[in-house]
Amino acid sequence: MTRLEQLKARVEALPGKREKQNLVDLLRKFGEDLSGAKVNLATAATQVEHARRVFAEIPRQDVDDAVKKAALSARRLRSTLEKNLGDILTPGVEKRVVALKDSAKDAASRVRDSWKTMLDRQVDALRPVVSIARSAKLQGGEELAHRLDRLEAFRAPATSEEAAALKSQLESLREAVVALGLKGKAGEFLMSAAQGRARAKDLEHPEVRDVLERFQLWDRLSIRLG
Question: Can you give the pLDDT at residue 189?
C-alpha cells in the first residue's frame, strides 16, 4: 500500500461523514496534483539529458535543484499529514502543493527555454551564410535554407533517438555550410552582389575571385562601377 493509500485509509476510518468526504476529496485532488508534478519533473529530468546530447552546454543544475526541492517538500508535506490529517484543510498545505506544482512546471519550462536559446544561437550563426547562398542562387543554397528553417522549428528531443537524429542533422548542416566557403571577403562580396551593391574593385580580391570561379557566378553578378 502506498503512502497516499495509507492516508486515504486513515481518512476513511474517521467519524463524521461530511468532514470525512471533504478530507477524501482534498486528498484525492492533492494526490492528482502531486502525481502531475512528479510526471513533469521526471519529464524535465529526462528531457534535459536528451537535450544535452545535442548541446552539452545546456545546464542541468536547475532541473536537479527543482527535483531535490520538490522531493524535500513532498517528504515534509507527507510528514505533516501523517501527524495530523486535519491539516489538509488548512491554507498552508494547499500553498505547499501549489508551490510543488509550480516548481515542476518551472523546471520543464527552463529546459524548453535553454533548448531554444542554444538552437537559436546555432541557427543565427548559420543564417547569414545560408542567406548568401540562397540570394546568390548557389547550387544547394535553397535546400540549405529549407533545412535551416526545419531545424529552427525543432523542439527539445523527447527520446535519445530524437536527440541523435537532431545532432546528426545539425552537424550535417554545419558541414554543408562550411563546404560553401562563404566567409570573410567572399561572403561579404556575395551579399553585396545579391543586393546589387557589389563594387568592381572587390573582384581584385583572391577570395572573391576563387568563389566566383568555383561556383561559376560571373554571369549572375550585379556590380556597381566606381
Answer: 78
Residues facing residue 223 across a β-bridge: 198
The number of CA neighbours under 13 Å toward the Cβ of 173 is 26
Query: What is the pTM for the complete model shown?
Result: 0.69
The total number of residues written for the chain in this structure: 226
Question: What DSSP designation does 158 have?
Answer: S
Summarised one tens digit per residue, pLDDT across range 63-92 is 888 888 888 888 888 888 778 777 777 888
- Please check the confidence at residue 52 and state whether its pLDDT lies above 60: yes
Contact 157, 47 (CB under 8 A): yes
User: DSSP string spanning 17-58?
Assistant: HHHHHHHHHHHHHHHHHHHHHHHHHHHHHHHHHHHHHH-TTS
Query: 111-162 pLDDT, tens per residue?
Result: 999 999 999 988 888 887 788 788 777 788 899 999 999 999 999 999 999 9
Compute CA 65 distance to the chain's CA centroid, rounded to the nearest angstrom: 18
> What does the DSSP 8-state code read for residue 148?
H
Q: Give the C-alpha distances (Å, rounded to integers) separating 143 from 134, 183, 201.
A: 8, 19, 31
Q: How many helices and strands in the chain, by DSSP H and E?
A: 8, 2
Name the nearest CA neighbour of 34 among 5, 70, 7. 70
Q: CA 211, CA 1: separation in Å to the nearest integer?
A: 72
